[in-house]
Amino acid sequence: MNGQEGDGSGSGSDGGESIGWNQLNKPMYFGLCGSFFFAFETLTYPIDFLKTRQQHAQHPLSLSAIVNNVLHREGVRGFFRGYTTAITGSIPGQLLYFGSYEYARMTFEKFIPQPEQESVTHLFASNLVAGFFADIAAIFLQTPFDVVSQRAMISASSHPKDLHPLSIVKTILKTNGPSGIYRGLGASILTFAPSSAIWFATYELSKHTIKSQSTKAELVERVGKDAMEHSTHLLSGSIAGAISTIIMNPMDVTRTRIQTFNPSEEQVLGRNIVSVIMKTVKQEGMGALFKGLVPRLWFGIVGSAITFTGYEWAKKIAQQPSVDIYT
Question: Which of 47, 149, 255, 300 is close enough to 241 for a disulfide, judged by CB 3.0 to 4.6 Å?
């Protein structure tokens, strides 16, 4: 699994090699990934909506209460508040994110090649670094869309005019100035960059461990090579999603609150990361930092499994004939 064999991506096409950045047909790769992410984000958007509502609330609020309230007031379409804004930023953001990850991983492998003796530490480190920088690259594009879509999600008004993206942007500019569009950027970086690093590193480590334990010829023959690959991706993605979600949930609560608070709520909890965390714990207890964990875990486990499986599929389809990844 060294760099010369194409391990510049951390995502494998078979039991031994990985498909590197320079092995991909880029238009096909981005087209397939874009289609997959559009479908995935659309199907899972209501879960993100519920998570945001629960994290924003400064009092105990069950998922069933949120669901009943939204259905009563707005019907099913209420779960898609802010969807247009979110998807507009999410698709290019996800493509930039995964593309940056592939390139960062390849660059890491180029300057710090895999030792002759396969190293799990090297595998973990390369994906940890690549995952971190991938999120840094994408977060400046995605944050404004996140801020606007989250404001739509938690708005007390259900009037279409108040929920229109331009109306929300005008309100943000009037209340917080131009910097309001990037509100919570620091919290976003501290939430998503480490989470991304943990996500990719844990996925690759889990995939490596599972593959090393499931290479017996009779097992592969009985189950089938494709079934083994998909099962490995699903299980590894689930593990990565669960671990990164649980570890980073407190920071996600903090980020959501900073990005969605109105001026009166700011006076209560403040607007910097430390202040929000300390006052949240003081007023609501430690459990408040794990608000939204149930929908996030569902999204983290199931969503992560589907994401990695779809992503691996897209890379496999877009793979070009073998080339030197450093040319």
Answer: 300
Average pLDDT over residues 88-112: 91
Task: Report whether 288 contacts 276 (CB < 8 A).
Answer: no
CA terminus-to-terminus distance, the chain: 19
**Which one, of 303, 267, 301, 216, lies nearest residue 39 by Cα?**
303
Q: Tell me which DSSP letter residue 300 carries.
A: I
**Residue 1 confidence class, pLDDT cut points 50, 70, 90:** very low
Contact by Cβ (8 Å): 152, 163: yes
Q: Directed axis angle between helix 120-154 and helix 83-111, to 10°?
A: 160
Of 107, 103, 118, which Cα lies nearest the Cα of 17? Answer: 118
CB atoms within 10 A of CB 59: 7
* pTM of the predicted model over 0.85: no
- The angle at the Cα of 294, spanning 288 to 297, to the nearest 5 degrees, equals 115
Task: For residue 313, count other CB atoms closer than 10 A to its CB.
Answer: 17
Residue 165, classed as helix, strand or coil, is: helix
Mean pLDDT value across the chain: 84
CA-based angle 303:308:313, to the nearest 5?
125
pLDDT surpasses 90 at 242:
yes
